[in-house]
Specification:
homodimer, Quinone Oxidoreductase, Chain A, domain 1, Rossmann fold, 2 domains, seven-stranded mixed sheet, six-stranded parallel sheet, 16 strands, 28% strand
Chain lengths: 338, 338
Amino acid sequence: MGENVNRKILLASRPVGMPTESNFKMIEEKVPEIKEGEVLIRTLFLSVDPYMRGRMSAAKSYAKPYEVGEPFLGGMVGKIVETRNSRFQVGQFVEGRLEWAEYNVSDGSTIRKINPELAPVSTALHVLGMPGLTAYMGLTYIGEPKEGETVVVSGASGAVGMIVGQIAKLKGCRVVGIAGQDEKCTYLTEELGFDAAINYKTAENLRKAIKEVCPDGIDVYFDNVGGAVSDAVMTLINFQSRTIICGQISQYNLEMPEMGPRVAGQLLTTRSLMKGFIVSDYAQHNKEAFTQLSQWVKEGKIQSRENIVFGFENTVEAFLGLFRGDNIGKQLVKIAEE
Amino acid sequence: MGENVNRKILLASRPVGMPTESNFKMIEEKVPEIKEGEVLIRTLFLSVDPYMRGRMSAAKSYAKPYEVGEPFLGGMVGKIVETRNSRFQVGQFVEGRLEWAEYNVSDGSTIRKINPELAPVSTALHVLGMPGLTAYMGLTYIGEPKEGETVVVSGASGAVGMIVGQIAKLKGCRVVGIAGQDEKCTYLTEELGFDAAINYKTAENLRKAIKEVCPDGIDVYFDNVGGAVSDAVMTLINFQSRTIICGQISQYNLEMPEMGPRVAGQLLTTRSLMKGFIVSDYAQHNKEAFTQLSQWVKEGKIQSRENIVFGFENTVEAFLGLFRGDNIGKQLVKIAEE
């Protein structure tokens, strides 16, 4: 690959059901030249996130669909390699939602500088970035957990789930994680201090397994998964419980919507709340959230874990792995050395 | 029936599916004698309400189950006929949640005086009572309707629904009611000023019918019904919509829980809220709500309608009629003349 080649990944076609490699196309272009006011960014890490599956479809959602033939957009951390913008110097690290590409051009409005002394720069894509803020906002402003309450998190070892559980522990809650591998469960209880973790794939009776570790019922349910996992959790919610709908990864690749037990009756008899959100709904709290998360990370009170795949050409594979549950912790693609 | 006979209705057995007359038992007792501090109340109106179906089952819910062999408890309006309590005089009208009986005894803590000059005393069982407060609290504090938004109400001609729609109109919203008879729909649009009403039993394609009268989507859904009606509504909710779960009358008599389209994904992509409640969750706003409702009633801005069945012996039949959708407006049983 020559030095002046910029590889990019485009949406080749909209998937029906589970996406495959054929829905993506890698192209090569020349590294773009920048104009006055712009910077050229070398990608170091690309973030692959479950919500991107939604953007591959044309259906109305909070995130605008990707266009067929256009590049994927996603979180990335990079380094300024050329600048014609006085706010940015060569060598600075930045984070932004840009193209899945080895190089990006920005006028500065789509990126923010990150401080490499605070934490490794890749944390700007998880605990000190969108997933961390998502965990903080959903738990704090929808979940409103109180000391002594029981918080259940699905997709607990993912980028958002692992932060949710640790914040809930810091708030004095009993925390139960649900994940799809024994290794993930061990990570949650041994490394992150969760009170219990359940492998939903091997539990003989999921409801019973959850009930056993939630003797006082469930006050807050932070849901990244949906489907049968949520069906079991929802039967155990307490009066005036709060369910945060952050993701529904079990449902994203279904060709036909799945039927399930209706939840409205359960919400009624328990006088409970269920709310979907995206992180930008709580943007007015960004500064507070970022300050708090940074402090917890600095004090060692919140840990995070990365699952790294190397090489731009493996980006699609890393993305598809999300739906197989390959990752423990935040799934990243490392494109270049810092 | 002798003057000193007090008829009562007990729960004879718990129903499976739709309740029948056999689940109830009428007994005759002597009219009780009152002790110091007590009053004897002659029942004038009994209220039959859908939520009572829940109390006939043993399942955990916000309202404690009735016990087999014990009297039904429900809203009633009565007149003091004997008093040994200085706070109450003979001839005063009171409202309370007491036994389904021709006479009740109270120590005063379970009843409140009602003012017959404000409105007919029976309104204490609907617009100026529990159903009115329920409509006000749910719409105001969960729905938070803004001027110009679209509010959809299911069970729209029932005791709660008819008030919800009128309050929403007073707040400047577009209001669409869903009901199960053409006559109910006509009442909503002709008498109560709803912008549109849909008969869900005769609509060929319910979703399409709702969409036609909600060109800007649905911002607030006040749900008294659940099931297929809600399935259709939920496909049309807007970003950051609010769904108030007040009742699920379509589901109360099912022998097996019904499956339906999962709502969590829709709540996620629209960043929407769904919340169940009972009126007492908002008790801190009771005074404000009552004052506001009384004023609207006095000014003629809120109307209400009663569906009256006469005679204590017809109470069970009136209750069962709720589940057939017999009533337009608040279903009452008139037991005695004022």
